[in-house]
From TrEMBL:
<dbReference type="InterPro" id="IPR023631">
    <property type="entry name" value="Amidase_dom"/>
</dbReference>
<dbReference type="InterPro" id="IPR036928">
    <property type="entry name" value="AS_sf"/>
</dbReference>
<feature type="domain" description="Amidase">
    <location>
        <begin position="72"/>
        <end position="455"/>
    </location>
</feature>
<keyword id="KW-0472">Membrane</keyword>
<feature type="transmembrane region" description="Helical">
    <location>
        <begin position="14"/>
        <end position="34"/>
    </location>
</feature>
<dbReference type="Pfam" id="PF01425">
    <property type="entry name" value="Amidase"/>
</dbReference>
<keyword id="KW-0812">Transmembrane</keyword>
<keyword id="KW-1133">Transmembrane helix</keyword>
<protein>
    <recommendedName>
        <fullName>Amidase domain-containing protein</fullName>
    </recommendedName>
</protein>
Amino acid sequence: MIIPNSLKLVNHTKTKLCILIGIGLAGAFLLAEARRRRRRRRRRVSAPKHDFGAFVERFELLPFPPQHHQSLSALTFAINDIFDVKGYVTGFGNPDWKKTHKESESTALVLTSLLMNGATCVGKTVMDELSFGISGENKHYGTPTNPLMLSCIPGGSSSGSAVAVAAGLVDFAVGTDTTGGVRIPAAFCGILACRPSHGVVSTIGVLPNAQSLDTVGWFACDSSVLHRVGHALLKLNSVEPKRTRHIMFADDLFQFSKVPAQKTVYVIGKAIENLSGYQSPKHMNLSQYIASNVPSIKGFCEPLTSQQSESQVLKALSSVMFSLQGYEFQTNHEEWFKSVKPRLGHDAYDRVIAAINTTHDNIKALYKVRNEMRGAFQSLLRDGGLLVIPTVADNPLKLNTGKAHSSEFHDRDFALSSIASISGCCQVAIPLRYHNDCCVSVSFISAHGADKFLLDTVLDMYTTIQEQVSVTSYALPVPDTNGDLDISELLKDNQ
């Protein structure tokens, strides 16, 4: 059969038309699919994961046989994957660590104490690998979702524990704080946290990062719970309350941070008006105090102009902290790292490599700075002294922020956390209120061994602080000063 040319032309045109329609449909489909993928990616950022991604392992450890008047009865808690639990492998935030270690034969003493006081453990939480870092981002187990700001990092290294408390998944949680691992995520997630005095809470059954700095800390949303957990872990005896208490604001550190200083001074000043035993708050330059009373720190400061000297002291202090951490981490884990060659995320890898490859020739000078810091702060905070500083310097970074943008952020926050880490003092982080879409967090620091005094003070003041925060607008234009502020004048202006 012979097909007419006109019909051939019609068929050919139809074929072209079908091809064009097919291409158009395929393009529309691909465009729609790309849009769907973008929406899914946005949802992954904005929608919390199951349990906010806080846990690496779920289980239930019930309290020991009930006793009368157990202080933590009916409370649930979680622990970082750095604490030994009999019959479980402690993961240290890294799957290669978990693969190369056996099940624990005993349970960490801190966990035993909590169970004996009536609390129930419901699982282990995500942490920064090998307890390095402050972002809370974990390459292997994912990043727990910050319930306060879904698009921002939760902070680390005890990220999962902080998120579990902030999301209301548990009543309290336990983590470790070496260079800020409890205090920083507490600030970013808007909750309370305590880093106790160095050495007062047992670290038996806790994987070490750096023993001279390691502490076991805890998180809570309620000041009463924070207080009760502290008494269970610290085994504190009743002591006579201090007759006088004096509060000092580190003005230079508030200027160093984005925390609204004047309003914070006002809120805390109002909170102590009705409490007995408090002297009028004082103001000081903490960097100058450290420079004058810790002479060995000068060996770690670069010669700079007087305008730069204050920030240089803090930078030197954090440098000492990292060098101590690196030396002790190297001693603890160099053999394992070199034999296993574990897969690590970029942040953890850079810090571990720096620790492993550094030759620590000045170790005696590092310990000398630590000893002088402890003496200087015991003198500063004796007889009921409380130092008030910002918990962190900046708002939390967005998730997946590049390394170039996060370096300065890390340096500034570590500078603040190095104060308690090196001095060994106890510190409680206290959330105040939103400011520029973030939670403001300040910290009270007290002398080494004054943990009960600090926890009692926070319990006494917390409700009043929150009441003052609720009636004090953080948006009010209060002019900044250079730190020579008389609290009575500020109160007079705002009454």
